[in-house]
Amino acid sequence: MTMNLNQYTDISSDVENALAAGKPVVALESTIITHGMPYPDNSRMAADVEAIITQEGAVPATIAIVDGRLKIGLSIEEREALAQVKGAMKLSRADLAFALSEGRTGGTTVAATMLAAHLAGIKVFATGGIGGVHKGAETSFDISADLEELGRTPVIVVSAGAKAILDIEKTLEVLETKGVPVVVYGSDTMPAFWSRQSPLKAPLRLDTAENIADFQKAREAIGVIGGMLIANPIPQASEIPAEIMAGYISEALSRATRNGITGKAVTPFLLSEILTITKGESLVANIALVENNARLAAKIAVALSTR
Ligand code: PSU
Ligand code: MN
After folding, report:
1. Is 250 inside any structural domain?
2. Distance CA 261, CA 185 (A)
3. Which of ligand 1's atoms lies nearest the C-alpha of 264?
4. Which residues contact 116 (CB under 8 A, 6 or more apart)?
5. What ipTM is given for this predicted complex?
6. Atom number in ligand 1 closest to CA 290
7. pTM over 0.95
8. Mind listing the pLDDT tens digit for each residue in 83-115?
9. How far apart are CA 307 and CA 136, in angstroms?
């Protein structure tokens, strides 16, 4: 069966067969590969999350743009090449189609991956942390397109919350305004990416993948459009406590200001500065939380496919 996609899109046969058979599929983003982590950690992480999703009984679909082709499900070779490519674009809703028309290569952000997943009929997506409202957004106006996408595209995004480099409180406010449910998995507290705790209460809480699938079915039944954010706290053994992270984050933020970093460069710059400041500890935590999210996303996809 051929998917009703378009002249720019290649869907891998594994993903196509799974979708046609109603089997669970989990989308994965690729900005985390091209801009979020250095090589070779990015490559190992990308392979590990796919393996975890497979173990849980779902089919992984890493999404990216390679030489102007929108790939839904990268081959191992394509994924490995992307992990090493120099000068990849960081693609969101605004420039995804530009990369297609210009034959470019790029990693897809949460926003662009949601859009592509929906195009292919994939309902669940795992990432590390979504973009959100940056600290100081009242003057910079820097609010990630990820929030807008969550408001309009019906994909469940499993993350470890919003990255703690952001203003999590304002991020939750914007999500609420856009009608995006934020469900914390198994906790009453909103997690903060590298840390299990933030000062904020969980907007909603659910404790099982089946409950999340039931919630999604109810949203669909009453015609609520748009995405849902699952905030999955990082495993205890891998977390960096919030008090410790706070110092690292403020140091990284002041380096960003000093270096005049703006726009799309902000998130990759902060992540890489924090990696340097923590001597790699933040990266170990980042990989652990992405893997944890991949596992939960697969469970949700399985639960959705059997309901
Ligand atoms: N999560 C990570 N590392 C990342 C990102 C998320 O653990 O690099 C990426 C995602 O692709 C997300 C993007 O969509 O950062 C947000 O960028 P911005 O703040 O510029 O919208
Ligand atoms: Mn931004």
Report:
1. yes
2. 34
3. 20
4. 9, 27, 63, 70, 72, 96, 108
5. 0.95
6. 7
7. yes
8. 999 999 999 999 999 999 999 999 999 999 999
9. 43
